[in-house]
Hints:
By secondary structure, the protein is mostly helical. The chain has helices spanning about 5-15, 30-40, 50-65, and strands at about 45, 70-75.
Amino acid sequence: MSALIRNRSKFAARPSRPQVTSVVAATNLLEVIKACEQQDIDLAVLGHVLNVNEKSRITSTVRSICKRGTPVLAL
């Protein structure tokens, strides 16, 4: 049995993590802070309409306030 198949079977035997079931919309930096403080954010998605400076500010805020390692996807 290859290592890949062994590792896959070990992974499949683990209890699965609950699926993400909600989306929290934030339209400004204060709402981002509030969302990070009140929710367990798994992923932050920044829309394409934000300018580069605002994306940078929000990314810094998410990294400092949300749980450690929250990924940020900037479109």
